[in-house]
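ESCALATION

Customer reports they have been waiting on this structure for their group meeting. Please prioritize. Original submission:
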Amino acid sequence: MPIMFSYPAAALLFLLLLSGAATAVHSIGVNYGTLGDNLPPPAQVAQFIKDKTTIDRIKIFDANPDILRAFANTGILVAITVPNGEIPSLTDPKSALRWVTDHIKPFYPDTHINHLLVGNEVLHWGPQELIDNLVSAMSSLHNALIQEGITDIAVTTAHSLAILEPSDLPSLARFRPGWDVGVLAPMLEFHRQTKTPFMVNPYPYFMYSPEKADMALFRPNKGFFDKYTRRTYGNLFDFLLDSVYMAMKKLKYADVEIVVGETGWASLGEVFEQPKCSVPNAADYNGGLVKHFDAGKGTPLMPKKRFVTYIFGLFNENQKTGSLAEKNFGLFRPDFSPVYDVGIMRAGGAPNKPIKDIPAGPALTVGKKYCVPKSDASDAALESNINYVCGQGIDCAPIKPGGSCFKPDTLKAHASYVMNAYYHAKGLDDFNCDFSGSAIIISTDPSNASCKYVS
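Update from on-call: job pushed to the front of the queue and completed.
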């Protein structure tokens, strides 16, 4: 319902907006990834976002203390993420409380943490142990926050749209069997009871074809008609959100809020990724998304609803694995110059050269990274890590007798090699070097004369 202001309050609000002193209530967020060896320090990033853009929230894929410190007292909302591997241990209330004490309380409320994500796309990537423990861990962390007197951090988790069965129409969408009543219904009940949002990552990018280009990129088109709901779709973003809504509705959870955790478009790609990946396409998609968001029209099935939305991503990240496209989802280059204009810069905010007048502060870890066991990791944990990694399709032949990394023949050495191989195979995301708290990321190459670690 609309908020009613008295005349003095309305006048004050108008003056604040006119002067640019107030951050827009309905701004847009961005995912702040850190997989680059040329990225600016968090203090510069925080100042840039605050002073030069209309972005009012960020989402990070861990709980990086340098980033949390940098965004203190900026007024920018920060969503943080529990590493996937920590999920099973966080079903224990004491472990959940310790996680909140260690990773949130030192920074809150100076840093305005608004969302706590328990893992990222867990149902998509698995393994089953994480899926089975996900809702319980979310509940434990919610209770831990309440126990600490923190009531304004919403616990959620981000889902890829692999949670949906393939369908040609939003009206026919439903969650995948097994996940629907086994995982998603209990999770949606948790969201309903705690008044927290269901977070999804809709990417029209992955539905692109030359025939669907205009629909995918918010360009003018004839629209797509859903004969069962008698609604017409002018873009694939709305198509995907209404598909999620219909799947929720079929489980009787249409009242739960939806938040968009990731969506974006690559501005550069390999030859085989053309013509999809280009600056004009990325500008049309993300620029169209911002305009669509600002218009507040909602979707055909959820009219006039404005969804909290985080664009992926803030920077191009040169250390991401995969194709060239994976490294080029950023709105900005590492020197803060825009890759293209999407309408989120404040007047005079776009720098023509690298920003140098902002104190650097501590830099993020850069260069090569390796995932190895912590010094106090138990033999049981190491053995479990080896079994898990080798069961995920990672080549474990080097640690077998006769292999280049069989020597030294110790559990820790073998676990170290395969854990690092897994970490690199999964794209160097920090949450893939967790292993239930038994691993740590280092910058010193652990290779020896015969055993060369993936780097």
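Sent to customer with the following note: The longest strand covers residues 113-120.
Escalation resolved.
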